[in-house]
Structures are given as C-alpha cells and as structure tokens.
Amino acid sequence: MDAASPGQRPLGAQISHMLKAQGVEVIFGIPGVHNQELYRGIEEAGLAHVLPRHEQGAGFMADGYARATGRPGVVYVITGPGLTNVLTPMGQALTDAVPMLVVSSCLDPADWGTGKGKLHEMPDQEGAAATVSDWSRTAADAGGAYRLISQAFREFRAGRRAPKHVQVPLGLLAAPAPGWSDEPDLDSRFLPDPRNVMAAAEMLRRAKRPLVILGGGAAPAAEAVRRLLPRLGAAAFTTYAGRGIVGPDYPLWLGSMLARAGSQAVIASADVVLVLGSRLSEVDIWRDELGHSGRMIRVDIDASAPVDRARSSYTIRADAAAFCEALELALGAGRADQGWTAAECAAARARWRAEVDAERPGIVPVCDALRAALPAETMVFSDMTQFAYAAKEVWDMPAPGLWHHPFGFGTLGYALPAAIGGKVGRPEAPVVAIAGDYGFQYTVQELATAVELGLPLPILLWDNDGLGEIEASMIRAQIAPNAVTLRNPDFLALARAYGADAAEPGSLDELCSATRAAFSAPVPTLIRMRPGIG
Predict the structure, then answer these.
(1) Cα distances (angstroms) measured from residue 349 to each of 247, 267, 365
(2) Global confidence as pTM
C-alpha cells in the first residue's frame, strides 16, 4: 500500500511521514541548515519534537525514551558536528542494547574526500558512526532511504535493539520524492531449536544445585522466569540491568551481587548455571572469570555475545521469553528438590550488603529511605556516580525495566537527559534522575529543556565536591590524587536561573518529602544531597 498522500514531497518531509507510519511519535533533535528538510514534514506528519540544548542531550533523551517505552528513540542531527556530538549516546545505546535510529544529513557524494572545505565536512562520516552502531549507511536515492528505515525497524522488532544510523545527502533531502510502500512484518522472534530446549531441560532436571543468572535481556521473560525458578529449585542472581525480574519475595534470590568477590564461591557450588539474556561482560562481574565450575547454558538473542569469555558449555541463540515458554513445556510436571536453602541465600545477601555499606559509607541508608518513600512504579535514571554504584546493588526493584543506568559504555552526563526522554515517553509515570556533581555538569544545560517541557522531574544530585570515585581509585593504586577536586557552582541558584525549583534537605525525612513534592511540581526540581545527610 502506498503510504504517502497524493503528490510528491521533498524526501526530508517524506521521511518524517514514514517514521510516523512506523509508529514513531517523538523526534529528539536540533535543526540546522543541513537538516532543515527533515523538519519540513514534522508537524504535518503529527510528530512531536523535543529540542535539547546539545546533540548529546538528544541522543541520551532518545535512549531514555526507548528504555522507558520499549519503542525506538529517533534523533535528527546535522552533518559533521551534529553527528559527532551524538556518537557518545550511540555508543551507550550500542553497549546496552537500546533501540535508537539516528537520521543525519551528509554532504553530497560528489563532495566526499575532495577537501574543498565544505561546511561540516568530514573525511568519513558514515564510518565514524559505524564504530558506535549496529550499522551506518548512506541512502543513494529515495527508495534507498525508505529501505534503510524499514530495515532498521524490522531489526528493532526482531530483537536487534541497537542504534542504527541512516545518512541522507543534502541534495537528496531537498529533492522531490514519491511515497513508499509498506512491507509485510513477520513474526520476528528468535525461536529456540526444540532439540536445544530438550537438552537444556534434561541438564536442569538432573541438577542438584541449579543457578540462574538473569540479565536485562531476560526482562520480557519475567513472568515465565518466576514460574520456572521454584520448579527448578534454582537460586538466582540478577545482573544490574536485570534487577526486578525476581526480588526478595523469592526465597532463593541472591541479589544483584555478581560483582561481589564472595559470589564466586557461591557460583562455583552450582552444578548447572543457566544464563538468560546477559553478556556477562566486565561491567556485570568486574573480574576475568564468572567463577563457575559446573556446566553453563547460555541463552541469548545476540550471536555476538562473548561466549568464550563466559566458558559456556551449551549456547542457545533464542529470544529469552520464547525459550522460557518452551522450557516450561519441556520440563513437564513436578518440582525439583532444592539443594539451596533460603537461609544461605539470605545470609549471603546480608553479608554483601554490609560490604557495600562499608565501602561507601552513608549511601545505603539514603537508598533505603528513598526506596520506601517513592512510588513502587518509579523509573530511575542514574549517572556514573558513587550513589548509583551503591544503589544498583542494594536498591531492590519490584519489576524489571524501572532502573536505567549507562552500564556498558559508562558515560557521564546520562541521567538528566535520559530521564527527560523517559518522562516524555511515559508522562504518567513518576521519574527520578540521580547524578553526581561532576557528571551532572556534562549535560546541565538540559535543565532548560525540562523546564521548557514543564516536566515534574526530581533530580537528586549527590554532591561530594569532586570525582570521589576516581579519587578513591587513585588512593587504592597508591597514586597521589590529582585533578579530582573542583569548584562547583551554586547548584541551587543555577537550577533556579534555568527556571527550575531547587531544595537542599537537611535530613532523610526532608529528602523524601522534597522528592515526593517534586512529582507534582510544574517544573523539574534539583535536590542537592550531601554525604552525611541523615
């Protein structure tokens, strides 16, 4: 079916209409002379547009929107610096499997590599974006642009939830273009081979101490996982990204404590380890080896996951939910004998929690107070900060997909713009941003965007007057701390200058009250927290 209205439009306008037909509702971007043709069709197509103050903010907003809604975040940027500014968020989305489509302009092919000094000229713009995306490609004509956009959305639906980049030459964006044709969409889940499921079921059925490790990729399988665990008699860890799939209501839960040194002995005591939807990367375990001695079954939709590093015995490429549904059937009736006890799992979690409290004094009580005070459905977007490092181990989540952190790439400045994107995508949900005083200043200008949108967004600022985590690392490495202290602005006055509210609570009760009040404010609220608050 021809999805375009009668007559032709410039290709830039057609792209906005096509995105609307793909289910896109919001564009995050900054208009410029080079991409203004993309803006020609935004209002006519019925798309909303969010104007950040920097393309990095646009990318992080699209990331937060995608994580909050499950739908791809879409970004419009200009040739050259617009694209390079969004590369950092693209890298974050790539490592954390976040669906994002970046549409940029580019110079006309006749000008590539000529060195004519064209505005925004880059030697290899497509190649630059390819380093931080699933793929980066140039549209040769209108049909090519439509095919690339269609391919991106088919792959998003098929589980390849990673950023894609489509660039369109300037002349092509402005040229008249016909409409596009819809393509059939097939069931795109990666279904497991039944023989692999039966083999996994047999291994798990015979296991005396099975252990399940749940990554972020297992979130869609949460309901099936909760049914499976007691049937298997399995203990369970979650990665940081998998928090909320199971929680303290499951007696054999070991928490999001994989990075604790003591977890190695616990993992080694398991005779079969089932890993669902996790790459088991460095930022999941913070050591070279997981520590298992028994057999490992890995289930992942991503064929490129680092299988050798995890030393898996049996690897199954499949959608986690589809695998769990098939495994339920393959296991049949009955309940496994439990080689684990609730007491040993609870004792391990308590021991590790005490370690976190000792390593980062004063943060755990703040986490406990906030967790009790916030609505259960609150979405949290955190930055690379000591507060978040402690919280992601001790702040238990009631459901998956509620805490979002820049895990793999580890970018500073993520929390504020990502929270804005999350709130745009889920305006009815309570959303909180958590940032450190240094990382917050990477994207502080996006306060203007949040104020402009009238977002009731609490921004919890952990202010320890510097790069506290780096200073501690230098001391551990016997390096004299260098370049880790700084002169901060008056954060409360800065927030008010942008038009936001601001508060500095003096106690945990005041902190919780200020945060709750911020959910109903007409603008975002910056809430400054100092170490020692209590």
Answers:
(1) 12, 14, 16
(2) 0.94
What angle (nearest 5°) sits at the alpha carbon of residue 28, between those of residues 22 and 30? 130
Does 188 fall in a domain? no
pLDDT in tens, 60-71: 999 999 999 999
Residue 79 has pLDDT above 90, yes or no: yes
| Whether residue 369 is found in the same domain as residue 421 | yes
Distance of alpha carbon 331 from alpha carbon 326, whole angstroms: 9
Based on the domain organization, do 409 and 334 belong to the same domain? no
Which residues are paired to 50 by β-bridges? 28
Q: Which domain holds residue 476?
A: 360-529
Domain count, the chain: 3
Average pLDDT of the chain is 92
State whether 255 and 109 are in the same domain. Answer: no
Is 407 inside a domain boundary?
A: yes
Q: What is the pLDDT of residues 183-222, one digit of tens each?
A: 666 555 688 999 999 999 999 999 999 999 999 999 999 9
Asked whether residue 184 is assigned to any structural domain, the reply reads no
Residue 32 and residue 149 in one domain: yes
Give the H/E segment covering residue 295. Answer: strand 295-300
Per-residue pLDDT at 485: 87
Which DSSP string do the residues of 186-211 spell out, in sequence order?
A: -----PPPHHHHHHHHHHHHH-SSEE
End residue of a domain, out of 116, 143, 177: 177
Do 380 and 524 belong to one domain? yes
Q: Looking up tokens 């590093």, which residue turns up?
A: 309
* pLDDT 10s digits, 130-139: 999 999 999 9
C-alpha span between 275 and 272 (Å, rounded): 10
Greater confidence (189 vs 90) lies with 90
Inside any domain, residue 80: yes
Q: Which of 151, 177, 203 is the last residue of a domain?
A: 177
CB–CB of 218/401 below 8 Å? no
Q: What's the CA dihedral at 395, 399, 402, 407 to 10 degrees? A: 70
427 Cβ contact partners less than 8 Å away, ≥ 6 residues apart: none
**Percentages helix, strand, coil for the chain, rounded to the nearest 5?**
40, 15, 40
At 304, is the pLDDT very low, low, confident or very high (cuts 50, 70, 90)? low
Neighbours of 492 (CB within 10 A): 17
User: What is the distance between the alpha carbons of residues 66 and 74, in angstroms, rounded to a whole number?
Assistant: 9
Residues 339 and 365 in one domain: no
